[in-house]
Amino acid sequence: MRAYVDTRAGMAEDGWSAAWTFDLAHWGTCGQGPDDAAALADLADRCGLGADGSGADSIDVVERVVRAESGDETVFERDLAPASDTERGATLAILARTRARTLDLVRAAPPGVLGYRDPGRRLPAYASWHTVEQLAFHIADTESRYYLPLLGLPARERAGDVVTELEESGAHVRRVVSTMAPDLSRVWPEHGSWTSVKVLRRLAWHERGELDVLAGLVDQAVENPG
Predict the structure, then answer these.
(1) Which of 37, 106, 110, 202 has its CA 20 to 30 A from that of 10?
(2) Please, which pLDDT band fits residue 62 given cuts at 50, 70 and 90?
(3) Residue range 139-196, pLDDT digits in tens
(4) Which residues touch 3 (CB under 8 Å, ≥6 apart)?
(5) Are residues 178 and 207 in the same domain?
(6) Could you tell me if 67 and 87 lie in one domain?
(7) In this structure, are residues 91 and 22 in contact, taking their beta carbons and an 8 Å threshold?
(8) How confident is the model at residue 93 (pLDDT cuts 50, 70, 90)?
(9) Contact 174, 167 (CB under 8 A)
(10) Nearest-angstrom CA–CA distance, 82 and 56
(11) Is-above-0.85 flag for pTM?
(12) Are residues 13 and 104 in the same domain?
């Protein structure tokens, strides 16, 4: 499997590395860890190539970028290619499938669960989505008011309640992705470089990762009521 390493990506933790694959079978999959080797091992595990990092031997690193500062957004050369119809289609399928699971969790959660916060959970310094409800809003905030506008695509106003927001944001993003140009590219002084391919892979990745955290928080809240 071909991999692309983003050193000092600073996504899950400040200064951490991220390892991506653009292989369609694993579209939107990202491994993360405190260094490049750990990120590649995590990617291998997520792609079913072997536990405990053993699958990393079957990964071919074809591109590596090193950020000047942790969290300073950049792109791979691979991101500069026009997005293919299959990449767009894979993204749309992942978005629809994942949003359905997120909505199932949030719709079933009573107020006490929505307001639950795990006191032992560590977040990067910039993150403020601590409770179940805040994390669900964060998923929509990221797709509708961060990723899309970075390509000059239309954002949308946030709905007042979290279920409506997830429903409307999901529909909005899928509609925009269905018709967006395959070769968009923008560079922002404060947000770095973004392209159509980069936004597609980030959209395909983001909610899936957050959904695992969301489900864990819901389970903890049910086990620790009040």
Answers:
(1) 106
(2) very high
(3) 999 999 999 999 999 999 999 999 999 999 999 999 999 999 999 999 998 888 999 9
(4) 19, 20, 21, 40, 43, 59, 60, 61, 62
(5) yes
(6) no
(7) no
(8) very high
(9) no
(10) 28
(11) yes
(12) no
CA 69/CA 107 separation, integer angstroms: 39
Task: Name which residue leads in pLDDT, 68 or 141.
Answer: 141
Q: Are residues 206 and 123 in the same domain?
A: yes
Residue 39 to residue 212: CA distance in whole angstroms: 18
- Shared domain check, 121 and 158: yes
What contacts 10, CB < 8 A, 6 or more positions away? 16, 67, 70, 71, 124
Q: Answer with the one of 72, 98, 123 that is the final residue of a domain.
A: 72
Residue predicted with more confidence, 175 or 221: 175
Range of the domain at 204: 80-223
Q: Phi and psi (nearest 5°) for 165? A: -60, -45
Asked if 44 and 89 sit in the same domain, the reply is no
Residue given tokens 């695509």 in the structure block: 153
What's the CA gap between 129 and 143, in Å, rounded?
15
Last residue of a domain, which of 25, 46, 72? 72
> Using an 8 Å Cβ cutoff, are 116 and 226 in contact?
no
Whether 89 and 200 map to the same domain: the answer is yes
Residues 52 and 137 in one domain: no
CATH number of the domain that 182 lies in? Answer: 1.20.120.450
- Domain total in the chain: 2
**First-residue to last-residue Cα distance in the chain:** 47
